[in-house]
Design goal:
Strand content: 5-15%
Number of helices: 20
Radius of gyration: 24 Å
Distance between the termini: 46 Å
Protein name: PEP-utilizing enzyme
Organism: Prauserella oleivorans
Helix content: 40-55%
Largest sheet: 8 strands, mixed
InterPro entries: PEP-util_enz_mobile_dom, PEP_Utilizing_Enz, Phosphohistidine_dom_sf
Pfam family, one: PEP-utilizers
Amino acid sequence: MVDISRPWIVDTPISERWPVYTRANVGEVSPNVTTPLMWSMIGGPPAEREWKQALVEFGAFDIDEFRPDVIDIQGMIHGYIYLNLSNARTFGARMPGASPELMDRTYLGEVEAPPYVPHPDDNKPEYTERILKTVQRVLSEKARPDVQEHKEAAARLRAERPDLTTLSDAELVARERKIMEDPYAPVLRTHLRMVYEGSVVTGAFDQAVAGLGDPSLAIRLMGGLGDIASAAPNQAMWNLSRMVKADAELTAEFERGIAGLDARLRAGTSEAAKAFVTEFDKFLYEYGSRSTDEWSAAPKSWETHPSIPLGMIDRMRLQDDDREPARQAARLRAEREELVATVREQLADNPEALGQLEAVLATAELYSRAREQSKSNCVRMLHEARLPIWELGRRYVANGTLGRPEDITMLLESELDQFIKDPQSFVSIIAERWEWYDALDELEPPFFVNGEIPPVTTWPKKKDPDHQPAQSGTVLEGLGACPGTATGVARVITDPEDAPDLEPGEILVAPMTDPGWTPIFTSAAAVVVNVGSPMSHAAIVSRELGIPCVLGVRGATKKIKDGTTLTVDGSTGKVTVH
């Protein structure tokens, strides 16, 4: 029996300067134990270095406030990722117009947190002055050429990918390391800084329309922008779904089921099958980096697991033509232009307020597009670094050393060299770590940690649900992300491989907001998600598709049961259970 009371392989010491940690938001996006490879290669120290620099560049912190070579902004406790709430509160204390209490509401909603204990260094004028300079820069920007440059760099990286099967094991590891160091690291830093910059835009937008008496105005004005990177796969999948719908043989293959579909299509001899495979391969080239666990070390990406996008296409082929994303986008653009004209008329007698609105409209449009493109840049580059590791795992499955490619994620990144030299010496280590992983993965980590970690042996088990099913008449509240209402049967989907279960007209209830989920949105009447914010991926994409969406309904995938009839109001953020 493995001893789970000891720290997990990649656990980090908690901070004395910032002692309060929370599983809010990150607990829904990363519900399971973190693999050693993910934390040592992608999430832990590599991300922390760029995250700290992003906060320094934003003006909110000095680098010497953080412990050198130690995790402060994140947390890793018995394998579970935490966010440092105390650090976020410090950011709120220094941010003009914000506060520690506002950061609590942003991350936690109405959940009561350990009390905020001010630190002498939390609120200092010099930080406020720096942040104000950033705010002024963000609100005056007309373009983000850095994001465009990163997009082009990601495209070059994909175009220059060698045949990984021809590289030696050592060359595969070297390729991963080179990509993670450069170009990936500076692109990640840009994206992390942009998350904070995006919060400036959201706050300015809310302020600009606050006096007009319509609480849904801000999110309505942020829809129908067009050219959103994370929405682009939806239209590409839609086009593929129309090819299926138009051909009886393709339709018959899809109706046989998703299992083995990719192989059957590639073995097909009809012109329709050949044309579909050609277009599908173009799709995988462009968007194959996407997955629903986009920060993990070995996710089920669309390129490595093509059955996932095929399952999404299968749902889209059942939709009427009027659900086409491009049609919806055109309609929403027209509605937005009409709404902007109306608001301009309302503010015609107030030149100052009108000028503020015009500036914020342009900035919101810029940042909505840039933020999504920035995330896409990160994911595409990260995919190129992970594929060599996937190839390495595949090889050692083929020679009988490993049982599955994912076994390699039980290694630390620093152990890869030794693994290549003597793979057999790690077989028992990998098995023991999986046993340890599985034991920890049964547990429900505490929602808050305040300076002291409760003994892991006292943690409850996940199989003991902490949410009672919502009863008829219950109104769940979240954040309205896209206006509109829809009533339908709930379909709770926690894994994108279950997408074929979603029927037209049903309401998708999902755990997270990663872009890899958003093609499923096209097949839903409305969307309810456990986490999210006005500038999150689900929010931006739902506004591009015109699908009523409510985010931040904590525990929605546990509270709402399959088959429950719901009414989703994307304006008020209310989800009514019938």
